[in-house]
Amino acid sequence: MTTNSSIASETREQVRTTDLSDSPLPKIVADGVERSFGSGKGSVHALGPMDISIDEGEFVCIVGPSGCGKSTFLRIVAGLLPPSMGKVSVAAKSAHPASMIFQDYGIYPWKTVEANVRFGLDVQGVRKSEGRRRARSWLEKMRIAEFADVYPAQLSGGMRQRVSIARALASEPEILLMDEPFAALDAQLRTILQEELLELCQAERRTVLFVTHSLEEAIILGDRVVVMSARPGRILAERRSPFPRPRSAAVRDAPEFAAFKAELWELLRDEVEAGQGSAGRRS
C-alpha cells in the first residue's frame, strides 16, 4: 500500500475546499494494478489491470468468481502484497490507516479474547490502560465482554469472528478491509453478523472494502457493488445500491432487492462459468 505523504498533504488541502464544494475525495485509488505469480512459462496472471476509486466513508463490496483476484487485490491495498504493475494510493491521516479481517479469524490461540483485541494497540505503542479501555469498549459493542478472559478454543466460530472484528476496530482504522469474513459461518450466524456489521458501519462511517461471494450480502452491506471478471480479474461493472442509508437488513424483503440481485447475477453468471472452465483446465 502506498501511503504517500504528498498525497496526504494534498488531501488535507482539498478537504478544506471539498467542504465548500461538497464533492467527496477518493480515499483509495488503484491505478492499473496487476498481479502475477511465478515466472516464465509457469507464470499466472491473477489480477488486472484494475482501476478503481473509493471515497472516504464508502462501503464497497467486491464480488466475482473464485480465483479472480478479489482477495489478492485486498492484500495489495493492505500492503501485504506488492502489485506486479500499477499502484495503490491511500489518502491516509495516520501511520496505520488500515485493518484487515480474514475469513479464518486470524486471532492468536494462546492469547485471551481481551489480549487478542488489544494486540494491535500494543504493537502501536498505545498505553496499556488506554488499550484496555478501548478493547473493553469494543468487546461490549460486539457483545462478547463476558468472554474477555476466555481463550479462542473455547469460542464458537461466530464468537471468534466477533473477536476479529473487535480487534480490527479497536485500533480505530480509517479503512477496514474484510476478506469473506462470514463465509465459514452458518446461515443464521452470518445473518446476525451482517446485521451487526451494518449497524456498526452506519454509526462509524469508515471506509470499507469487503470481498464476498454472496450477492445478498453485498446488497445488504454495500453502497456500491463491484463485479469482477474471471481470472485475470478486471472490473466488469459497478452498481450503486438502490437502498439509501441508514438501512436495515429488512431490505431483503423489498422488491428492488430481488431485481438488483438478478441484475448482478446476470453480469456475473458467464464469468462464474468461465472461472469453472479455467479451474477444470488447470486440474
CATH class of the largest domain: Alpha Beta
Number of strands: 9
Number of helices: 8
Secondary-structure element order, N to C: HEEEHEEHHHEHEHEEH
Helix % is: 40-55%
Q: What quaternary form is this?
A: single chain
First-to-last CA distance: 33 Å
CATH architecture type of the largest domain: 3-Layer(aba) Sandwich
Biggest sheet strand order reads: 5-6-7-3-8-9
The domain tally reads 2
> Could you name the CATH topology of the largest domain?
Rossmann fold
Estimate the mean pLDDT confidence.
Answer: 86
Q: What would the principal axes of the Cα set say about the shape?
A: globular
- What structural category characterises the helix and strand content? alpha/beta
Which superfamily, in CATH terms, is the homologous superfamily of the largest domain? P-loop containing nucleotide triphosphate hydrolases
Low-pLDDT runs of 5+ residues are 1-23
Portion of residues in beta strands equals 15-25%
Rg from Cα: 19 Å
